[in-house]
Hints:
The chain has about 375 residues and is α+β, with helices and mostly antiparallel strands. The chain has helices spanning about 5-30, 45-60, 70-75, 95-100, 170-185, 195-205, 225-230, 260-265, 315-320, 325-330, 340-360; strands at about 35, 45, 65-70, 85-95, 105-115, 115-125, 130-135, 140, 145, 160, 190, 210-215, 235, 250-255, 285-290, 295-305, 315, 375. Helices cover about 35% and strands about 25% of the residues. Residues about 290-295, about 305-310 and about 370-375 have low confidence and may be disordered. The strands form four sheets. It has a seven-stranded mixed beta sheet, sandwiched between helices. Strands 11-10-12-14-13 form a five-stranded mixed beta sheet. A four-stranded antiparallel beta sheet has the order 15-16-18-17. Helix 6 packs parallel to helix 7 (about 225-230) and helix 10 (about 325-330) crosses helix 11. Pathway: Polyol metabolism; myo-inositol biosynthesis; myo-inositol from D-glucose 6-phosphate: step 2/2. It is an enzyme of class 3 (hydrolase). This is Inositol-1-monophosphatase. One of its GO terms (molecular function) is iron-sulfur cluster binding. Belongs to the inositol monophosphatase superfamily.
Amino acid sequence: MADNDSLDQFLAAAIDAAKKAGQIIRKGFYETKHVEHKGQVDLVTETDKGCEELVFNHLKQLFPNHKLIGEETTAAYGVTELTDEPTWIVDPLDGTTNFVHGFPFVCVSIGLTIGKVPVVGVVYNPIMDELFTGVQGKGAFLNGKPIKVSTQSELVTALLVTEAGTKRDQATLDDTTNRINTLLTKVRSLRMCGSCALDLCGVACGRVDIFYELGFGGPWDIAAGIVIVKEAGGLIFDPSGKDLDITSQRIAASNSSLKEVRASTTLENPRNVGSFNRNDPNVGTGLVGAPSCGDLMSLQINVDDSASEWIKGKTLEEVLTIKNAEIAKHLRLPPVKLHCSMLAEDAIKSAVRDYKKKQSKANNAAAAGETVKAGFH
């Protein structure tokens, strides 16, 4: 690990590079853009390429023995392996779609890893002139002033930020929308800002309380932000529960007060309503509505001894006794949403009826007296 003097030197170099790249971004932001497509909605501009070249050249001159990983270089020449050697990981323009549309949530992100651990982070938004910095063991700053994560301790009053990503296949879209639909019942509100690096900085300075993203571009999106969040007193973790790997394309961040987020797998595996196969004879699906407000409740049960959701271990008869007050408490529903728990109670009964009907038709009913267990989404 580098000593403090070296880390300070690395930070100064990264700030200098970020400011120079910021000048290019600021100039290009107000000009006509030449846009290329890396994917259906994954864009790249001449500004992306020019900024990466500038940052790389700057860092190579100062630290010729350091390795370099950049988003555009990787896109052009393939994946670059992250080693234990000092490695600069650069996103020259995070938020390219924002940049193309004139939405000012854009930045250059420069992180340094040593032993695969991020130790220096610089994220600069030149349009809003916000410079976020962090050095391992030395704190996090916004334009030179110390920053800290929020003190919000209740998930139900937390502000969550996430991103939809750039994949548009139906399976990914369904997974993303199901996850968002579920999380919206647990938090105060949700934002999508279009820049992973700035989302992390938002957690670091307390503007938002939680961030997660699955399937983002690569380590260049998060290397700098990880340092800044940690030095601001926040938590960084893999939402799947695995050890954090900055190349895994999975990340979550929160303040240190929201223990519930880290303790659960809510972000990675929420109870996605409707995620079971409706044609499965072991699945019952219930759909009920409230004519007065137009709300619909879709709920499924999966009759499976290995079920791991809330009501694992309950017999079908016990499932039918679950009351709306218990559901409301589990889902942390505010008073204005209590009718949702009443719909859920009716949906459970509807799902059980659907399951029993399937079993009867398939002639696969459980042997007389056998106790079956249910898990529900």
